[in-house]
Amino acid sequence: MSAPTRLPARREVAERLVTARRRLPWTRFADAAVYAGFVLAAFLLYRPLWENLGSGYLAHSGQDQNMWEWFFAVTAHSVLNFENPLFTTLQNHPLGVNLMANTAMFGVGVPLTPVTVLFGPTVTWAIALTGGLAGTAAAWYWVLSRHLVLTRAGAAVGAAFAGFAPPIISHANAHPNFVALFVLPFVVLCLLKLARGERVVRTGVVLGLLVSYQVMLGEEALLIAAVTMAVFALAYAVSRPVQAWAMARPLARGIGVGAAVSVALVAVPLWWQFFGPQSYPGLEHGLRGNDVAAFTAFATESVAGSEDSAVELSMNRTEENAFFGWPLVVLLLVLTIALWRDVVSRALAVTMLVLAWISMGALLIVHGEGTSIPGPWMLLFDLPLLDSVLESRFALGCVPVIGILLARATDRVLHLRVRADWRWTAGIVWFSVLVIALLPIAPTELRVGQRGDTPAYFADGGWRHLVDDGSVVVAPLPNPGDADALHWQVEAGLEFPLAGGYFVGPNPDGDGMYGPVRRPTAALLDGVAATGVVPEVTEADRSDALADLRFWRADVVVLPIGETAYPRELRDTIATLLGHPGRVTADVWVWDVRALTGPR
């Protein structure tokens, strides 16, 4: 093993200064104040949800809150019953769902099982989101203040941005796997230690443990982070090839140790994900690059944003993956020029620009107009693993890079080698610039609506006398566009399986798709629910309905009266398909189909 790369003398002096400052009593108070500020900020963003855990629903989450709560509930159910947590047939019955191939987030769901059991999955959902934001910012502050910058002010600025940047807040509406990123700062720290040759084997083991845990929190975030760190390493190596070569050997050895540890821990879950039942090789999203104009625009949930500020430049409210605002973009371009002579800052700036370019997709789009200018995604989109990633999400890799740049710039200003009064003036000017750049993109409170009531038929157990060991078919069947039935199933204690659902699974060709393969009867009922038109039911339709019910191993068909569009039209269609008018029980229409589907 080569000798550890020696730190420059100036850096050693700076580290001794940081160590000395840590011994001062006020520093602990300062750290506690920063951590408390992050927790308070995260709580204030989710205050409406915390105040209405019984029936609150994040307004911009689509059907994702239903899905995530279901994941947390099923994980707790599996843990309590000593069942395989990687697979379940409670949804998409009887084929089931490969939970490892979905964003089940076992790293949160398993340790919070007691919370889910005692208080319900909505509380777990709120903790995952609130704790994810605060925890990510706190983790970056710890790493920055102790290992990357000299001032707590710089660390606080960088960490606040890394935890609460507009792309993160956009995902905070619905995607805890892109909010709970508190492991990644420590992964970065381990790699830095390895590059310096510090306790290579021990640090490699820690790296492997961290990566394994991140796999259970979110693999896509880990992949984006890996690409980001690879771009930074390449940019740094180009600028300092000799030093980079000296770092390469301990870094490679430590990564090898970490890979061995991680493979030992996650080999079985990953095998199940890619080769287990209901697995799939990839999930095609189409071309979903960021519009160039999105980088200078303002996100919906920001001080300068509005209901319409991001609509034309993003897929939806949960995928506003750029939207850094023009004041910050201007500041970052100025910092790139001003700090270009500093090798680390230069590598960070290059990384930021490359990740932004990757996120723009195969062909650049400007204000909704396509161009013929190719992006690097043209060479990457078909590679294994990358073929399942929304390319616009690579802009998330810019977030911690920008945070570190802002932290380093703050350090530079606060340690200018000028007279004390000039340094004081420079600090006032710098923090004024930060306010101008960051205040417009500061997050605003996330909006919460009212969740519909669970039909009494499910909440009060009215289904029990009609369900033996088969499934419940809710009409229309739950799907990625309407997954309320997953919440009703959770409210019923997960005591019956559902046909259909909201998940990712294989399509007829084996590739990934959202939701179940649509059978003829499901498509027919979806059409009625969308149009309100009762179709002319043919013998072929009746034959398909019988085959579908037998495929789903259905015991009962349920049509909620008050929670469905066009209930009368749906009732007439189902009655014609089954040759039976059904009957009203509580607040639903029900059809007992056990005689049709036969013994199983």
Number of helices: 24
Please estimate the helix content: 40-55%
Q: How far is it from the N-terminal to the C-terminal residue, by CA?
A: 64 Å
Strand content: 5-15%
Low-confidence stretches: 1-10
Q: What is the averaged pLDDT score?
A: 93
Query: Sheet bearing the most strands, described?
Result: 4 strands, mixed
Reconstruct the topology from this structure.
Elements: H1 9-22, H2 25-45, H3 47-50, E1 56-58, H4 64-80, E2 87-88, E3 97-98, H5 106-109, H6 113-119, H7 121-148, H8 152-164, H9 166-171, H10 184-195, H11 200-217, H12 219-239, H13 241-275, H14 326-338, H15 343-359, E4 363-366, E5 369-374, H16 377-380, H17 398-414, H18 420-438, E6 448-450, H19 456-459, E7 471-474, H20 484-491, E8 504-506, E9 512-514, H21 520-531, H22 539-552, E10 554-560, H23 567-578, E11 583-585, E12 588-592, H24 594-597
Parallel strand pairs: 7-10
Antiparallel strand pairs: 1-6, 2-3, 4-5, 8-9, 10-12, 11-12
Describe the fold and architecture.
This protein is α+β, with helices and mostly antiparallel strands and 600 residues long. Helix content is 54%, strand content 8%. The protein has 24 helices and twelve strands. It has a four-stranded mixed β-sheet. Helix 12 runs antiparallel to helix 13. The longest helix has 35 residues. The N and C termini lie far apart (64 Å).
